[in-house]
Design a protein that fits this description.
Length: 217
C-alpha cells in the first residue's frame, strides 16, 4: 500500500526546493559552523540564457524558504515528495521562479557547510517511487522516476521526474522535473513544472558553469 503524507501547494514545490533529512545526524555537542558567504544575485542564470521569451521573475531567499518549510517526518518520503535537498541552518542562497512556455522554471543556487549526498538522495527517491499525498486535503498520487544526471567533473549530479495525479481521474498529471549539481558546499538546482520542452540537463550544466566562478570555484 502506498504511504500517505501531507503535501503543500504545488507552487511551494516549484519555488523552494527545501529541506532534506538524508544527511547523517550531527552530534549534539558539535560546534555550529559559521554561516557561509552570501550568494550574489549574479550567480543566478541571466534571463537571456533561458530559451524562452523574457518573463518576470519571482525571486526568493533560500534561508527564508528553509525556515518556513514543513518538517514533518514520515520515515523518509516527505523529503522526496517535496523535493527537499537542503538542511536548514547555515545556508545562504538565491532562487527564482519564472513562467516559460508550457509551464514554469525555477533555479536555486546555495552555499551550505552540509551539502546533500545526491547519490543517497537518489536511492531514497527510488524507495519512494510511488506514494499517496494529501495536497490541501485532496488525495494525490506522486510517482517519482530517477534518471541519469548530467556528467559534471568533480561534482555529484541528480536527475529525476515526478508526476502528480489525482487517483481515478483521466486528466494527465502535473509533471515536475529536477536536475541538481553539488560540489564543495555549493548546490545548483533547476526544476520545471508542466510541459516546458526545456533541455533541463543542458540548462543545469550552464547554470553550474555560470554560478561556479561567481562563488569562487
Amino acid at each position: 500500500m502506498a504511504a500517505r503524507i501531507r503535501f503543500p501547494p504545488v507552487a511551494i514545490l516549484i519555488a523552494a526546493a527545501a529541506v532534506v533529512s538524508i544527511s547523517p545526524a550531527k552530534p549534539a555537542t558539535a560546534v555550529p559552523a559559521p554561516p557561509p558567504p552570501a550568494v550574489p544575485p549574479a550567480a543566478l542564470l541571466p534571463t537571456e540564457t533561458i530559451p524562452a521569451p523574457p518573463a518576470a521573475r519571482d525571486v526568493f531567499d533560500v534561508a527564508t524558504a528553509l525556515s518556513t518549510s514543513d518538517r514533518r517526518d514520515d520515515g523518509g518520503c516527505t523529503d522526496v515528495v517535496h523535493g527537499r535537498l537542503l538542511s536548514p541552518g547555515g545556508v545562504s542562497g538565491q532562487g527564482f521562479q519564472t513562467a516559460v512556455p508550457g509551464g514554469q522554471l525555477s533555479e536555486l543556487v546555495a552555499r551550505t557547510p552540509h551539502p546533500p549526498d545526491l547519490t543517497a538522495w537518489a536511492a531514497q527517491a527510488r524507495r519512494c517511487a510511488r506514494v499517496t499525498v494529501d495536497d490541501q486535503d485532496l488525495p494525490t498520487e506522486s510517482t517519482t522516476t530517477v534518471g541519469t544526471g548530467p556528467a559534471v567533473p568533480g561534482a555529484q549530479t541528480l536527475s529525476y521526474q515526478q508526476v502528480l495525479t489525482l487517483p481515478g481521474r483521466p486528466e494527465p498529471g502535473l509533471r515536475l522535473r529536477t536536475v541538481a549539481i553539488a560540489a564543495d558546499g555549493v548546490l545548483v538546482l533547476l526544476r520545471d513544472a508542466g510541459a516546458t520542452d526545456l533541455d533541463l540537463d543542458t540548462l543545469a550544466v550552464a547554470a553550474w558553469q555560470h554560478a561556479a566562478p561567481r562563488l569562487g570555484r
